[in-house]
Write a structure and sequence with these properties.
This protein is mainly beta. It folds into 2 domains: 80 residues, Gamma-B Crystallin, domain 1 (Sandwich), CATH 2.60.20.10; 81 residues, Sandwich (Gamma-B Crystallin, domain 1). 3% of the residues lie in helices and 47% in strands. It is built from 1 helix and 14 strands. The protein has a 4-stranded antiparallel beta sheet, with no helix packed on it. Strand 4 and strand 5 form a beta hairpin. The longest helix is centred in the middle third of the chain and has 5 residues.
Length: 175
């Protein structure tokens, strides 16, 4: 069973909250989050309730302060467990909304979308197999966006206010 523990203070101090499943609202359990311990599983933590705002991919391990998970602040208000997955990875990205314009099918990580796709605009996507993280900048930097299998007709459906992206990779460490 997956397990994650959120702590109010750095270095795993202060009030804490343990979670073993998706949680759309955590504000009642702690006021801020400055450290996280992932005991098992793979998780996505969100800055806002109901899986909104900044997103952070968290693998098994310890994060003694929010900079360690590339946090923009000490605010975590919801989390989602990434289900175990051992299958293939396949996703199709599109330059424009509603699956229009230039497109590219991917089955591997892509550290620089501009070099491979010849544009940084991704306005829609169809995740056919596996779980993926889309990153704002090349080499997996900047804001992160978690994509589960399914159709995303516009970039706002995965939580982004912009269609400009730099890289994407498969979520492969799910133990």
């Amino acid at each position: 069973m997956a397990k994650i523990i959120f702590y109010e203070d750095r270095n795993f101090q202060g009030r804490h909250y343990e979670c073993s499943s998706d949680c759309p609202e955590m504000q009642n359990h702690f006021s801020r989050c400055n450290s996280i311990r992932v005991e098992s599983g793979c998780w996505v933590a969100y800055e806002k309730p109901n899986y909104g705002g900044y997103q952070y991919m968290l693998h098994k391990g310890e994060y003694p302060d929010y900079q360690r998970w590339a946090g923009f602040n000490d605010c975590i208000r919801s989390c989602r467990m990434v289900p175990p997955y051992n299958g293939n990875y396949r996703m199709k990205i599109f330059e424009r909304s509603d699956f229009a314009g230039q497109n590219l099918e991917l089955m591997e990580d892509c550290p620089n979308l501009h070099e491979r796709f010849h544009t940084r605009d991704i306005s829609s996507a169809n995740v056919l197999e596996g779980y993926w993280m889309l990153h704002e900048h090349p080499n997996y930097r900047g804001r992160q966006y978690f994509l589960r299998p399914g159709e995303y007709r516009r970039h706002s459906e995965w939580g982004s206010s912009s269609s400009t992206f730099g890289s994407l990779r498969r979520v492969t460490d799910l133990n």
